[in-house]
Amino acid sequence: MSWFGSGILTGLRITMRNMLRGPITVQYPHEKLEIPERARWAVEMKPDEDGNHKCTGCLACEKACPDFIIKIDVTTAEDRSKHIDRWHYELGACMMCGLCVEACPFDAIRMGHDYELARTDVAELQYDLLTDVAAAQPKRKAAAERPAGAERPAPVAAPEAAAAEAEVEPQKGGEQS
Amino acid sequence: MLPDATAIASLLERAGIVGAELSSEGGPGLVVRVERAQAGAVVQGLKDSDHAFVFLVDLFGIDTGEHVDIVYHLRSIARDEELFVKVAHEYGSDLASVWETHPAALMPERETAEMFGLTLSGHPNPKHLLLTSGSAPMLLKSVEIRTAEEVRNR
Amino acid sequence: MSDARDTVAHAGWLTADKPSLPDEIPLTLKRVPSGVDEVMTEHLVVNMGPQHPSTHGVLRILVELDGEEVIACESVVGYLHRGIEKLAEHRRYSAVGTLMDRGDYVSGIHNEMAFALAAEKVADIGVPRRANWLRVLMGELNRIASHLVWYGTMGLDTGAMGQFLYAVRDREDLLDILEDVTGQRMMFNYVRPGGVLNDLTPRAEKKIRAFLSTFDAYLDEHHALLGGNEIFQARTRGIGVIDKETAIAFGLTGANLRASGVSFDVRRDRPYAAYDEMDFDIPVAESGDIYARYLVRIEEMRQAARICRQCIDGLPEGEHTAKVAKVLRPPAGEAYAAVESPRGELGVHLVSDGTDRPYRMRYRPPALFGLQAAEAITPGTFLADAVAIFGSVDVVLGEIDR
Amino acid sequence: MNVYLVALLRILAALGLMLLNGVVLIYMLRKVLGYLHVRLGPMELGPHGVFQTLADVLKLLTKEDPTPTHVDRALYFLAPGIVFVPSLMAYAAIPFTGTWVIADLELGLLYTFAIMSLLPLGLVAAGWASANKWSLIGGMRSVAQQVSYEVPLLMAALPPVMIAGSLNLTDIARAQSAVWFWLPCLPAFLLFIVAGLVEANQTPFDMSEAESELVAGFATEYASMKFGLLFLSEFSNTFIFSSLLVTLFLGGWQVPFVPVDALGGWAAVVFLIKVYLVIFVLMWIRGTLPRVRIDQLLAMGWKVLLPASIVWVMLTGAAVKLWPMVFGGVQ
User: Fold this and answer.
1) What are the pLDDT digits (tens) for C140-163?
2) Inter-chain contact C320–A149, Cβ cutoff 8 Å?
3) CA-to-CA distance for B56 and B75, rounded, in angstroms?
4) Which of C198, C322, C326 is nearest residue A169 as measured by Cβ atoms?
5) What separation in angstroms does the CA of C222 have from each of C92, C219, C227, D281?
6) What number does CATH give the domain A43-168?
7) Which among B35, B46, C107, D137 has the fewest CB atoms less than 10 Å away?
8) Which ranges of C102-222 does DSSP label H, i.e. alpha helix?
9) CA C247 to CA D26: how far, in whole Å?
10) Do A158 and A64 meet the contact criterion of CB atoms below 8 Å apart?
């Protein structure tokens, strides 16, 4: 570092060293990297063991979404059973924050791992995840299996209660349990 | 950190400021509330005092529902103290620039004025900063943005 | 044309907003006599940006040129304004983090942390020790990533190309780690009021250790490649000097302030998260030129790696988040919390009125103050210097425009 | 054979060489810069992307060519030609082997420099005619730098001329059968590299394009094949500068310890390998160094390079005259 030009030569040596290290490129359409377990991409339904959806139509995700892109049309029948007319999701405006998945008390949705989400038609950027299905009955088991520490397991008897709880939970301070 | 309230009070008294209210309850720190006409003098006085509040950390507004509070967040590097000066402004009133005391206020003042619908006086370049001219003062509570339903049905 | 105000009037700008021009020449636009006005030369007013290779996003700089010399300059911002402060008033506390990420998109963890700290202050929430350490760890990794971007673009601004790709190569490792832990590469949504979203994975821990074991050598290489280069030194030493008084007057913070000889670092002077348990040095330079800012940032990367090593070795056991209500309703009050983001003091001034949404959230953008200072010192330099000066104060338009 | 036919064939040969060279050099630049920057460069079209440049040429040829509203039309259309033609003409005097030269001119070196000094004319025309401020600054810069560096470049080329005693490029190359001139003329060699980098508009001194400052300099407003011509002539200038460097200082087509004309046609291959090695070094520099500032560049030209080259020319002159006196006519 003493004489003029040594820094330039050092720089040339460094670029040559890096050239000899070889490229780090991943040739994307031909090679693909592994996606981490926690990666968040488009929202999708998380089926149970039998392949059925677990959505109870409690609207917790709809309320949690900061972009207001989830719209669930639910009709309640006489016997208080619920019917999901459509579970509308707007991929084009989704920022994949994962708040809906965290809000779901029944572990019914998840952030998918498919990252090739480009569409050739704008209309395909909004679609229904569920259409015209009966809402699932809330299961205590599923609620208990949710990852520890995320939130308190939701002690819910009815989907309305879960929605109501998410809405009016009082805040008492730091040592809330 | 938190400056001594009595020292600041006597300091303001010596600088000829009357009617300053000091409080540190429920606020972000020691809050000095002064009259609108005195804002520039207070900021200048605090800078020239031996506490040397030479650093303007931030300048912004809060729409309280009755008026707009302009907050000058000041810091003294020498004594490591922080102070908030709050000045109540009527809606649509005039915000006097303090850029000669704190050049750091140049851009935040422009932003605050446009965001709260105030006019800016004494400023060398009183143009809009972030919004296009003609936009509503966005941060006033009376300016509505789209509700969730409107967003969903857009 | 006689002075800087004419620049603006010439470009047809001011008239739309304000019919009358201010009488006094602004301090920020001071005029430098050129000595060639008698021969009726005309100054050139050029628009650098919003689409220009070196304006770091959508910054527009109105430059008045006398030949190659900058006579006056004015920055025009707002092209990326999304109204984060207004939107935050309509989001629950848990969702504001997603907005903060999109402020300074190069260092999302710090933005989230600033808001989380402010919300915790207002709501009086205690944070578990492990969560604090995780915040520090992720924050410092993010700081390295952000400074690497700065290092790379600083080289691009001065015309070098190789080091940008090397910097991005190292940043890629960091983003992989952050993706592993948080789930996304830039919009993390990781630091929440009360703690952090996820704990460290074993895979991420292995990756962090691998990264830290090689990073110091790579950093030396980066520094030798750009900072050791005589051409780069000729371009940056003594150029764009911000002296101590100017730095304080214009509200500079972070590395820009420390490069001007003021030793103020939020991490040390207003400790948050677990920084009071960490052992690190604050680099301070005296000269205040571009090279000083460069050196301070390089040294900060080294210190950040040092903090990361302490974090990963001494990570305490425990919960990664406190038990926080699903819908946070802090009592009415006000709080100011600041973090040392890579660009400086990023503050969040939060006003709560007892509902589940913030009443007012003020986001103090450190890069805005850096931009003002750059605008003030640029007149009198050359066009190429102007590019380097605006690059050296590290402007990120997402943060300036919010 | 008909003398006109021969002349035409030679011109076509030069044109073909230039176009081929451009295609090869662009591909090479992308690959070399790619690997220097730990990436791959083009990979999709053909094995390792070798047809990428051809595809780009096709793209440039078929692209829409919009003309901005306020341009000076005549100059705007003429400027790429003014830039392109000299860099094509400069191929004429370059000796690929002892016999393969398009025109074996007695004043070959002078001719090449004279032709190359027309370049800034085209660049400033392009900058002026584009009616774009960035282009204007770029054009002005190119004139400033090329005019200031022509003198040091010529001065740095003089020592080989003085030793060889000829301005004919073939003769200069031949004169290096004993020792290549870079060794006895080391300072001139270095000066020539620096001045040549400026003249060829290469990276530490690519002021007139200066991407981070001037968007694309004089080429900002050009599209399609007009841009292609500007681009091509830039690569061609690089090639000519490298050829001159090889011819003046690196022994031309010769290989050490092999008699001058022993290689026959293969000598052209040797020459091209040498030229491409020099170009590789230029690209290596391009991938590494930051750009100097225009005032620093000009100051260096007038205050350092010019005096240094004059001093070295004087020293060489003295040495060339004194050598026979001392050693009795070895020369």
Assistant:
1) 999 999 999 999 888 888 888 888
2) yes
3) 6
4) C326
5) 42, 5, 8, 21
6) 3.30.70.3270
7) B35
8) 108-123, 129-157, 162-182, 202-222
9) 46
10) no
